[in-house]
Design goal:
single chain; alpha/beta; Rossmann fold; 2 domains; seven-stranded parallel β-sheet; five-stranded parallel β-sheet; about 35% helix
Amino acid sequence: MHLLDHFSTFAPRYDVVLCDIWGVVHNGIAAYAQACDALMRYRAGGGTVILITNAPRPSPWVVRQLDQLGVPADAFDDVMTSGDLTREVVAGRNGGAVFHIGPQRDISIFDRLNVRFTPVEAADYVVCTGLFDDTTETPDHYRDLVAKIRGRNLFMLCANPDLVVERGDKRVYCAGAIADLYNTMGGEVLYAGKPHRPIYDGALLKAAAARGVAASPARTLAIGDSVRTDMRGARALGIDGLFVSGGIHAAELGRESPSRDALAAIFAAADVTPQSVTPRLVW
């Protein structure tokens, strides 16, 4: 495990970067200028950047959001979202009655799909994109609802496997927290995003399209701030991981210069060790 201050010393080893968005490129409110600069410089040197995110929305929506947050278009080649995969799964079910758990802002994930929204009592399956109100609610608010879903033995499609993200300086829960609760009750869950393989397959196809040739695993790097999703996903894919310690795990590790002991503890708990660690993505 290497501790890095600058990505530039590490970047020439790789042709493709699969980069997490929230916590690495922005914090939900504004872009991280140094991270965007690092990705632009990497691309200027011939590298390909695919932003890969557990956002429960289609990639065109995420691209518009990136622009609004100040992420330059030159910082990436393409975007792959768990929302894209969710849409594929819903489309493959050829319609049906859906009970949607999540805020109204996520409804674009169903655009032009043949679904009917119903109460849980009449649903064929459940799509969870998040909490109804992530500013005030926690997974504990959903225990009765999840028990009702389990009582009907419904399939749940989780459009965002993340447990939490940081919105500015506040931590909010994501769909993965609800899906994990259902899973612990014995419910059937399909997780559409990281760390599961399908989202990476989609990202690698986009990287090959951007480059005109597929990159080898040895020349592909995953960058992210989540041990549970980004680093486990990299390990499962057989590629190197660059862990950004100043993101979602900053409360445990600190935003600057985490100790090797603290890093070793958090990696041991997750049974994963990334290739390198950096406090934040800086060229």
